[in-house]
Specification:
Thrombin, subunit H; Jelly Rolls; 667 residues; elongated; 9-stranded mixed sheet; 12-stranded antiparallel sheet; 6% helix; single chain
């Protein structure tokens, strides 16, 4: 949590006032045009990472010959880098990293296991840092602190992202790490090393710890209220949901460890993606986000009780930073590994007003979940950061019950309506003089920036796409023409258009086709056919015929064609001579042109004087072998002839033929 001072501007500071106004205008321009919200929902994990109640015998090996690693007393200055931050420890780099070759490996069911035992003089919690050269699929890690009641479920290779991993927090000064590989992996070949240890020196259970300088260490410094203390309040069921979406965050920055709080958010498409909101000064960049570990249900079972909720669990592996901004102070992320069962994805709402009753759900100084009650006193107010400097545009809340402290940073502000809690923003900090005066990010001011994720759509084959994006889906998983069964599905405000349900489509061969000259053609294949078997230019009488699931395109029936200039000839078949035609009659002019296909063009002419003079009837008629001539009165004669010609080109002479004898045209 950062401390702030309210920025006040007078007419004597016109430049600062103008900058403040410019910031307000720029941010206001990104506000949503209308209010938007999502309802809360229980998270439905595919496989929880943590299982409460796993017995200590969950270790595979006996641990009778562990590699003993003793860390000396470490003196660390826990003065925070910025006022209001909650610093918990330091990172100790091992002089010699621990590698598999230093450990004793014993045979266990299915493979080999070794144990590393870390002992410290003054830590109250540990986080181990591993570096991987490669990660065999059979690798499993098991981890337990000396004060952990249960052994968490094993860490599988699929939960390791990249070549580095900060393991979950263990409680107590000592911890055991068991490494398991399958029988197919030689332990000596395992490329892994333990090179750093985060020594947590502040005990959030209240015990004192030596070896560091800090004003206090333990439970919340001021009067706070456990979640369970609100059990008689009508808002309690909604607050339980908000608490089930709230995490205590451990992270590392510049060689030290810190605590913050944050909230899981639900998207409108109910994709069950673990979106996570916290403060920019908590997880400001990807390097810090990679170190994050999240504690869930870190809350008391009763009002003012010491005992922790048995549902307590952790998510490790860091988070992917999707969007962050210094001025408005949010960080929006996606957890790399799923949270445990029973957590909630919080609902959210972009509307907020001065005077609204609100609740803060947080982990002050890493304590159990505390809930504060108050009301909104100002919106989009400019504050100056007393630590990092700079100004922020934030919403102000005055609490009447409880407040916020170091470690509360990033926690959610909630309004309760209709029995549900709706997230309104993340905590930036509080007043140096009043722990009940707190400021939060103005969600409506940056909603458009994270809206694509909060309006994501679930895909029928798993996963999701952000709002505004599209994906190609298929009606069935196999097809002879996948493009014919494809559909573009677009995500709009959590709703996915269309109905096709398959992510991919694989081509499968359909029925083959029978070829006109014999034999067959496989589905999807093509062949060149010819209209005639001998032509002046075979390319001009060629056609590509394609087989599509038993249906052969095109109509040409010859398998081969021979180029031959001698093959060209023209014969006029009708009128042949001696016929009599009457004006108005339609007369079929018929001919045969060899050596050319139907794409050739012919000219048809009429002579009224036995061939002495010709008049054109049709130019460029398709070489179909027939053209209908409608006889006119002006064409009346007893000496009529028809001529059909293939025009000459620069390479070939004209090819013509005339009716065998004259015929008569009468009026």
């Amino acid at each position: 949590m950062h401390y702030y001072t309210a920025a006040t501007f007078s007419t004597r500071t016109p430049v600062m006032k103008l900058r403040s106004l410019s910031l307000a205008i720029a941010i206001a321009s990104s506000y949503p045009a209308f209010a938007d919200r999502a309802e809360p929902a229980r998270y439905r994990p595919v496989a929880p990472l943590n299982t409460a109640g796993v017995p200590q015998s969950g270790f595979l090996g006996s641990g009778s010959r562990p590699f003993e690693l003793e860390v000396p007393t470490v003196v660390a200055d826990l003065t925070p880098e910025n006022p209001g931050e909650f610093k918990t420890g330091t990172v100790y780099s091992l002089p010699i990293p621990v590698t598999p070759s230093l450990s004793y490996w014993e045979s266990v069911a299915g493979g080999h296991a070794s144990r590393i035992r870390i002992s410290t003089a003054n830590a109250v919690g540990l986080r181990l840092h591993l570096v991987f050269g490669s990660v065999p699929p059979s690798l499993e890690l098991r981890l337990q602190g000396s004060e952990d009641v249960t052994l968490p479920a094993p860490i599988a290779s699929t939960e390791i992202h990249g070549n580095e991993l900060w393991l979950p927090v263990t409680r107590g000064s000592d911890a055991d790490l068991e490494i398991f590989v399958g029988a197919d992996v030689s332990p000596e070949a395992l490329d892994l090393r333990l090179d750093k240890i985060n020594l947590i020196l502040v005990d959030t259970s209240g015990a004192s710890t030596s070896g560091f300088s800090a004003q206090s260490a333990g439970l919340a410094q001021y009067k706070e209220y456990d979640l369970a203390c609100w059990s008689n309040d009508p808002a309690y069921p909604a607050l339980q949901t908000a608490a089930a979406a709230t995490a205590n965050i451990h992270f590392l920055r510049k060689g030290s460890s810190y605590l913050c709080s944050g909230t899981l958010l639900r998207d409108k498409g109910d994709t069950q993606t673990p979106w996570f909101a916290t403060a920019n000064h908590c997880l400001p960049d990807q390097t810090v986000a990679d170190t994050a570990s999240f504690e869930w249900f870190w809350q008391a079972i009763d009002c003012n009780a010491y005992t922790t909720d048995p549902r307590y669990g952790q998510t490790f592996g860091g988070a992917q930073l999707l969007w962050t901004e210094f001025n408005r102070e949010p960080s929006f992320l996606r957890l790399r590994n799923p949270p445990p069962a029973d957590v909630y994805l919080s609902g959210w709402d972009t509307t907020i007003h001065v005077g609204d009753p609100v609740w803060g759900v947080h982990h002050p100084r890493g304590d159990h979940t505390m809930v504060s009650k108050g009301k909104v006193t100002a919106l989009q107010k400019t504050f100056t950061d007393s630590g990092q400097g700079g100004t922020h545009l934030l919403d102000e809340v005055q609490y009447t019950y409880g407040g916020t402290e170091g470690g509360s940073s990033g926690s959610g502000l909630f309004a309760v309506s209709g029995g549900n809690a709706y997230w309104k923003g993340s905590l930036f900090g509080g007043s140096e003089n009043d722990y009940q005066d707190s400021v939060y990010s103005h969600f409506a001011g940056y909603y458009e920036q994270i809206k694509p994720w909060l309006t994501s759509c679930a895909l029928p084959w798993g996963g999701s796409i952000p709002g505004g994006q599209s994906v190609t889906a298929y009606q069935k998983p196999t097809a002879t023409q996948c493009a014919a069964v494809a559909e573009v599905r677009t995500c709009t405000d959590g709703q996915l258009s269309g109905s096709h349900t398959y992510e991919t489509c694989t081509y499968v061969a359909g029925a083959s086709c029978t070829l006109p000259w014999g034999g067959s053609l496989e589905d999807g294949r093509s062949v060149t056919a010819y209209q005639i078997d001998k032509a002046v230019n075979c390319a001009s009488v060629a056609e590509v015929r394609r087989c599509s699931d038993g249906s052969l395109s095109g109509s040409y029936e010859h398998q081969t064609c021979t180029n031959s200039a001698d093959s060209a000839s023209m014969t006029v078949v009708h009128p042949a001579g001696g016929e009599t035609f009457t004006a108005g009659e339609v007369v079929p002019v018929q001919w045969q042109l060899t050596g050319y296909g139907s794409k050739a063009k012919v000219n048809i002419a009429l002579s009224k004087n036995g061939g002495a003079k010709w008049s054109l009837l049709k130019s460029g008629a398709r070489n179909s072998g027939s053209w209908n001539w409608k006889v006119r009165k002006s064409q009346a004669t007893s000496q009529a002839l028809i001529r059909v010609c293939l025009p000459m080109t620069r390479k070939t002479p004209a090819i013509c033929d005339v009716s065998d004898a004259v015929f008569t045209v009468q009026k």
